[in-house]
């Protein structure tokens, strides 16, 4: 599995995808940080991270759109199905490579926060917990992207479907506020990633939220494995 992980991580920088992702992420996050925090003269970063979550809908598909759809298009998916390594290990290694690049770039973007310590007194606990929440959400989004990539051989369709899926998880909580039917509103708020993310923005660590994001990640990785297992018997 480690060999597959290293190969997948290296592949991001053999092609332009890795460089484009890192460059766009750092550029967009820096601009967001400048306009939502520095220009406002505040040490609060909640608005910055809120906008950043929506940017993920565009950036994360760059990491996942070709991950498994390319395997299907080039007919190399049979290598996955006949690999001596378990299918879950292969899928997890690919997922982990994408998440590593995502997490590494996110942490690098956090260097922007150093500026806040020169003219203010930012709450380090809130920053740490918020970044942790962002990492958990990113983990779930990457898993969703991996699953969608496994369902099609067209990279463009994979990217577009991932964008729609991520945006849906982000706006469902907002839509719930306009629904008068209480049971449906409760369900929509329960599946909303924002409802649990807000806890982290107050400096608290929520075990329930942790389990929620981890569960999403595990479920979509499991579904990805099932997609390939189904093809094995076709």
What are the salient characteristics of this protein?
234 residues
Verbal overview:
The protein is mainly α. The chain has one domain (about 1-230). Helices cover about 80% and strands about 0% of the residues. The chain has twelve helices and no strands. The protein has helices at about 1-15, 15-40, 45-65, 70-75, 75-80, 85-110, 115-120, 125-150, 155-175, 180-190, 195-200, 205-230. It is globular and about 55 Å long. It starts with a helix and ends with a helix.
* DSSP, total strands: 0
**CA(first)-CA(last) distance:** 26 Å
Note poorly predicted spans: none
CA radius of gyration: 19 Å
Mean pLDDT: 84
Order of helices and strands: HHHHHHHHHHHH
Could you give the topology of this structure?
Elements: H1 2-14, H2 17-38, H3 46-64, H4 69-73, H5 77-81, H6 87-109, H7 116-119, H8 124-150, H9 155-176, H10 182-191, H11 193-201, H12 207-232
Helix pairs in contact: 1-6, 2-3, 2-6, 3-8, 3-9, 6-8, 6-12, 8-9, 8-11, 8-12, 9-10, 11-12
């Amino acid at each position: 599995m480690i060999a597959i992980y290293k190969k997948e991580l290296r592949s991001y920088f053999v092609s332009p995808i890795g460089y484009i992702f890192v460059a766009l992420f750092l550029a967009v996050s820096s601009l967001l940080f400048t306009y939502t925090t520095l220009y406002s003269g505040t040490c609060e970063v909640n608005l910055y991270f809120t906008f950043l979550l929506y940017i993920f809908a565009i950036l994360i598909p760059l990491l996942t759109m070709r991950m498994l759809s390319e395997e299907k298009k080039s007919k190399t998916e049979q290598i996955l199905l006949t690999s001596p390594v378990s299918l879950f290990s292969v899928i997890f290694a690919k997922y982990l490579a994408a998440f590593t690049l995502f997490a590494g770039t996110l942490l690098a973007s956090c260097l922007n926060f150093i500026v806040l310590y020169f003219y203010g007194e930012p709450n380090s606990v809130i920053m740490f917990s918020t970044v942790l929440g962002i990492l958990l959400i990113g983990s779930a989004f990457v898993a969703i992207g991996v699953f969608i990539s496994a369902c099609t051989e067209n990279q463009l369709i994979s990217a577009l479907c991932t964008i729609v899926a991520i945006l849906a998880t982000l706006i469902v909580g907002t839509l719930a506020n306009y629904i008068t039917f209480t049971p449906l509103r409760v369900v929509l708020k329960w599946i909303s990633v924002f409802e649990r993310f807000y806890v982290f923005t107050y400096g608290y660590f929520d075990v329930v939220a942790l389990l929620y994001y981890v569960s999403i990640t595990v479920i979509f990785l499991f579904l990805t494995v099932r997609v390939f297992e189904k093809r094995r018997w076709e």
